[in-house]
Design a protein that fits this description.
Blueprint: E1 4-12, H1 28-51, E2 58-62, H2 64-70, H3 73-96, H4 101-123, H5 128-138, E3 141-146, H6 160-178, E4 184-186, H7 196-202, E5 207-210, H8 212-216, E6 230-231, E7 237-240, H9 243-250, H10 269-272, H11 275-278, H12 310-335, E8 344-350, H13 361-372, E9 379-381, H14 384-390, E10 395-396, H15 420-438, H16 444-460, H17 464-471, H18 475-497, H19 503-512
Parallel strand pairs: 1-2, 1-8, 1-9, 2-3, 3-4, 4-5, 5-7, 6-10
Antiparallel strand pairs: 6-7
Helix pairs in contact: 1-4, 1-5, 1-13, 3-4, 12-13, 15-16, 15-18, 16-18, 16-19, 17-18
Family: Belongs to the glycosyl hydrolase 57 family.
Domain 1,4-alpha-glucan branching enzyme C-terminal: 425-524
Domain Glycoside hydrolase family 57 N-terminal: 7-327
Length: 529
């Protein structure tokens, strides 16, 4: 007998990294790698489970920038080139490794894999949103939204209009693409603060996902901790992250992805093979980058690595999926003894962990869903909205402001390395609000400029840029993105206020930053508050 529920929630997000103005932009590879290693493998998993007539329910946020990029004609043409190049390299690898049985076996795996990726990609007409919309329509995958450009909302709440614009545009973009309004939202970085409640309610959001401390430290204290949702006073609910299931995947020392049989992330032939061989498959400027061809398994904590054994890795996948399922069964069996409603275990993760960082991650999800369908488990897979329909009475409690970042606060996104961002952002937000209140009856050209100004501001607000700066990865790129968007914003502002809008210049910017075709700058007007 089923005693409770598990909500497995994936957060699919990439910053807007579309660069038609740059030849072979390095950052576009981030998207292509995620498509090859995460999104298409997940689609293959869901298709396989459906073809086997196994019922399942999962939740996945697909942020507006990711939705936009997955449907973008330019990026899809670029990805098709990338995929065909990968197949070409896989054919060459069959020849290069022919005298090494173990390596050749891995090369054959990659050859089959990349051909399978292309087959799935073409099946959905080179547009992965076609697949995700299908799963959403079938009811097995509940897709939820996010703020427009993944802005860390508490850090821009000094200007409430900026928060409203982010949420309104995120909801509008989702509705236009999916054909229906979203039930839930993934607050960027699970970052919550009190002022978000009214805006979420205003735009029809029924629930959001939060960090465990948002619920555990809520006031009054929730009766069931994170094992049941809580509702803010206006009725919007939140589901807190379950930490036991989180540690089993995320933990550095006990998480499944660190198993020695899994594929080693940090060894790639893009860095190891002679330049004359690998040059056609790395960056056009000759910068060595990942190709996706990795021949080693983690092996251990030393530099010594053994050749990857796919069969061995799949055995571990099923062991780990069985362990994860048993832990949820034991957890729910124990918790349900002390509750007067069925518990729900909320398991949120970055989607890109599954396939990109943890190569076998999509296989784990496949095995977990199949294990969950077996009779011995004490739970069913569900979505937060389904749970609320079955259990509409929810304890009222005010969540604690928090995020799922380090220290459960906002310090990853505002600290000594990146705090400079916010002075300029807030100044531009104030300007955008003033523009929206001033230009109530613009000309057609003025309206286009005002809408583009709103796009540039939102793109500058992305939480990805301060995160990258804090973690000291592609810092130059993040700084350049913030400054380029704000400089474009300021230039457009000057042109608008001086009545000197250059249509050609505006069209050029629109062609590069073409996100949110239906954006309406009026959302920044105070009259909406």
């Amino acid at each position: 007998m089923k005693k409770g529920y598990v909500a497995f929630v994936l957060h699919g997000h990439m910053p807007f990294i579309r660069h038609p103005e740059i030849n072979d932009a390095l950052e576009e590879r981030w998207l292509f790698e995620a498509m090859s290693e995460c999104y298409i493998p997940l689609i293959q998993v869901f298709d396989g489970i459906l073809s086997d007539k196994i019922k399942f329910k999962m939740t996945m946020s697909i942020t507006p920038p990711l939705m936009s990029m997955l449907q973008d004609e330019y990026l899809n043409e670029r990805y098709l080139e990338y995929l065909n190049k990968s197949i070409e390299l896989s054919n060459k690898e069959l020849i290069r490794t022919k005298n090494n049985y173990q390596e050749n076996k891995v090369a054959h795996f990659y050859n089959d894999r990349f051909k399978g990726l292309l087959e799935t990609y073409e099946k959905y007409n080179n547009n992965l949103m076609n697949a995700f919309k299908k799963f959403d329509k079938l009811g097995c995958l509940e897709i939820i939204t996010c703020s427009a450009t993944h802005a860390l909302l508490p850090l821009i709440s000094v200007n409430p209009e900026a928060v409203r614009a982010q949420i309104a545009t995120g909801v509008e973009s989702y509705t236009k693409i999916m054909g229906h309004s979203p039930e839930g939202i993934w607050l960027p970085e699970c970052a919550y603060t009190y002022s978000l409640d009214s805006v979420l309610k205003e735009y029809g959001i029924k629930y959001f996902i939060s960090e465990s401390k948002a619920v555990l430290y809520a006031s009054p204290r929730p009766m069931y901790g994170t094992n049941a949702p809580i509702a803010v006073p206006n009725g919007v609910c939140t589901f807190g992250r379950d930490m036991e299931s989180s540690y089993q995947v995320w933990s550095d020392f006990m998480g499944y992805p660190g198993d020695f049989s899994y594929r080693e992330f940090y060894r790639d032939i893009g860095y190891e093979l002679p330049m004359d061989y690998i040059k056609p498959y790395i960056n056009a400027s000759g910068i060595r980058i990942d190709t996706g061809f990795k021949y080693y398994k983690i092996t251990g904590n030393s530099e010594y690595k053994e050749i990857y054994n796919r069969d061995e890795a799949m055995q571990k996948v099923w062991q780990h999926a069985s362990h994860f399922s048993k832990c949820r069964t034991d957890q729910i069996s124990e918790i349900s003894k002390h509750m007067d409603k069925p518990p729900i275990i909320t398991c949120p993760y970055d989607a890109e962990l599954y396939g990109h960082w943890w190569f076998e991650g999509p296989d784990f999800i496949n095995a977990f869903i199949r294990k969950s369908a077996e009779d011995w488990t004490s739970y069913e897979l569900t979505t937060p909205s389904e749970y609320l329909k079955m259990n509409p009475i929810v304890q009222c409690s005010t969540p604690n402001p928090s995020s799922w970042g380090e220290n459960s606060d906002y310090s990853v996104w505002i600290n000594s390395s990146n705090q400079w961002i916010y002075r300029d952002l807030h100044k531009c937000e104030e300007i955008m609000i003033r523009l929206a209140n001033t230009y109530t009856d613009p000309s057609e050209l003025q309206e286009k400029a005002l809408n583009q100004a709103a796009r540039e501001l939102m793109l500058a607000e992305s939480s990805d840029w301060p995160f990258i700066i804090k973690n000291n990865t592609t810092v130059d790129y993040a700084v350049r993105r913030i400054n380029s968007h704000l400089n474009r914003f300021k230039a457009i502002y000057d042109d608008i206020t001086k009545n000197n809008i250059q249509a050609k210049n505006l069209e050029k910017i629109e062609s590069i930053d073409n996100i949110f075709p239906n954006i309406n700058y009026r959302i920044y007007a105070k009259a909406n508050g």
